[in-house]
Design goal:
The complex is a heterodimer of chains A (290) and B (286). Helices cover 75% and strands 3% of the residues of chain A. Chain A has 290 residues and is mainly α. Chain B has one domain. Chain B contains twelve helices and four strands. In chain B, strand 2 and strand 3 form a beta hairpin. Classes of the chains: A mainly alpha (290), B mainly alpha (286).
């Protein structure tokens, strides 16, 4: 097992996971222009929905996978209709939206901890998963799937944004919501759909992560912090920027784990975040990029 | 009666960082999560200087305030370029970095196990070690902090702060260096949190790296009480400290008590944003 190939492989795996999350997060951010911290709640809803269906109720893997994703999407959709749509209709400031979404994450985290306890729960059933070795790096089947899923989802997202009617509407809203509405786009419906779609990404990411390791209630916050760091490093609302940010964050995380220990991972991530905030607040790719 | 004083001592201690946060967030709209870290600076200053090096509690607390002022000064300069959302994320980054340093620097902070056996405050050979005396002691300190905040609010300095909240751009045109004002407020508000941290450490006599959850607590307090209202900050601190005590009487298992509190605070924040974003005593439109 080579050291450098392994670090690169680990970076690729972490980056794939964060790429899945940041695509979902950025799709929404581009349209609504506020940091939906409650995305961390959707991550918890997906992970624990899957846990309930697969580990407790013993549904087949495919059913549990679909169920978990549906649950995280519904979480996002409900949060839009019950909280964010009324607030946006009132033209609330970002300040209010941010506080509300932060509150919602705390609610989700507390609920999950109350019902499923705050201990760590592995999501996989049989622990002997297939492992592969490629060029001196070891990885398992779930990690390979995570990479392939991230790749597929990125391609689908780019294609949809570029060529479909829905994608054009999303880009129009991203440029200027009021103008989009004036030109006949049902912005409320599109934004509702974006909330739903961002939930799909949250669900897919956390279930894959949970199958590889496991879930606990603090993951919502942990992941949202990493996601926000990656999104800012890459450039707010830019899908390519988010993916780039995911790679950068993943690389430095794995570098920190190798150089120091896992304990200093978050320190490194947030130091990067603060450095980027100071020197290039618009992110590496800037806000205008797709 | 001891139970009554125990709860109210906590409420009074919590009112101090809330008053500070109200200056920072309610007056100049800087969304700071960093209060929890400065609370930590004050608490660890007492735990280390007073507990380990046997320096008097009050001197240790003053050292904590000085340290908080220095840290918040540099943090304030670093973050001064950022606007609302980014400011929030910058302070969040700081909190995570601070938390991880405290948690991992075992030899100095005791790591995840924390520091136990912190001595009670001692003044002229008299130890403040009963619940009642500690309550009175905290009340005096809180009163002082309240008075400082009130003084700032009534002064010309306070009027500039209100103007920053209402229209920072206009004020810049009039030649005010608004970022200087914001930096001063940030340092004052953060140092107040340090005072509360020292009081807290002397009261509980034990300190460990607390969760980010504590930041949410202060946010809940000023949002419930009302942004920009000094009395609202104190009211919010009392409500938020007393509310979870209801659960004690209902008799939830201790294992989920903390999460029930989180649920309650989270719900309160979300509902207030929907129903009354300016809080109970808030006097400015959010």
């Amino acid at each position: 097992m080579g050291l450098l190939p392994q670090i690169l492989a680990n970076t690729l795996i972490t980056a794939s996971l964060y790429a899945i999350f940041t695509i979902g997060f950025n799709l929404l951010l581009g349209a609504v222009k506020f940091f939906n911290i409650a995305f961390g709640g959707a991550i918890l809803a997906g992970g624990y929905g899957f846990f309930l269906l697969y580990k407790i109720l013993n549904f087949p893997l495919a059913v549990a996978f679909a169920g978990g994703i549906l649950l995280s999407s519904l979480f996002c959709l409900l949060s839009y209709h019950l909280i964010f749509a009324p607030l946006r209709a009132r033209k609330s400031k970002n300040f209010v939206l941010l506080i509300a979404s932060f509150g919602l994450l705390i609610v989700a985290q507390s609920l999950v901890a109350i019902f499923f306890s705050s201990s760590f729960q592995p999501l996989a059933k049989n622990l002997e998963t297939l492992t592969y070795t490629l060029g001196g790096a070891r990885f398992n089947i779930i990690q390979l799937v995570t990479f392939l899923v991230a790749l597929t989802l990125s391609i689908i997202t780019f294609a949809t944004l570029k060529w479909s009617r829905f994608g054009k509407a999303v880009r129009a809203i991203k440029d200027d919501e009021e103008v989009a509405e004036l030109s006949g786009i049902n912005t409320k419906k599109i934004i509702g759909a974006l909330f739903f779609v961002s939930g799909i990404f949250a669900g897919v990411g956390i279930i894959l992560f949970g199958l590889d390791t496991g879930v606990d209630p603090s993951l919502g916050l942990t992941f949202i912090l990493g996601i926000v760091a990656a999104v800012i490093v890459g450039g707010m609302g830019s899908i390519t920027g988010g993916i780039l940010g995911a790679v950068i964050i993943a690389f430095f995380q794995n570098l920190a784990i190798w150089q120091f220990s896992g304990d200093w991972r978050d320190v490194v991530v947030f130091s990067i975040l603060i450095i980027v905030l100071i020197f290039r607040p618009q992110g590496l790719m800037g806000e205008r990029a797709i | 009666m001891d139970y009554f004083f125990q709860i109210f001592t906590l409420a009074v201690i919590y009112a101090i960082p809330t008053i500070g946060l109200n200056l920072i967030m309610g007056r100049t709209k800087m969304l700071s999560l960093a209060q929890t870290s400065f609370l930590g600076v004050g608490a660890y200053a007492v735990a280390i200087f007073s507990g380990h090096f046997h320096i008097n509690f009050f001197i240790a607390a003053l050292l904590g305030i000085a340290l908080s002022a220095v840290i918040s000064f540099f943090l304030g300069i670093i973050l001064s370029k950022l606007s609302e959302d980014y400011y929030f994320l910058g302070t969040l980054g700081f909190v995570m970095i601070f938390y991880n340093i405290v948690r991992n620097w075992d030899s100095f902070t005791g790591g995840a196990y924390g520091i136990a056996g912190i001595p009670r405050p001692e003044i002229f050979g008299f130890y403040i070690n009963t619940v009642f005396f500690y309550f009175i002691f905290s009340l005096i300190v809180c009163g002082l902090v309240y008075w400082i905040a009130l003084f700032l609010e009534k002064s010309s300095f306070g009027r500039v702060l209100n103007a920053i909240r209402d229209d920072e751009e206009a004020l810049k045109i009039f030649g005010y260096k608004t970022h200087h004002y914001k930096l001063i407020v940030f340092v004052i508000g953060s140092s107040m949190a340090s005072i509360a941290g020292s009081l807290f450490a002397g009261y509980i006599t034990y300190i460990d790296p607390g969760p980010l959850f504590v930041s949410v607590l202060f946010w809940a307090m000023i949002i419930i009480g009302g942004l920009g209202s000094l009395r609202g900050a104190v009211l919010g601190a009392i409500i938020v400290t007393l509310l979870p005590e209801i659960f004690r009487f209902i008799g939830f298992p201790a294992a989920i008590a903390g999460d029930m509190r989180g649920l309650l605070y989270g719900l309160a924040i979300v509902l207030l944003m929907l129903v009354r974003p300016k809080g109970i005593l808030g006097n400015y439109k959010v």
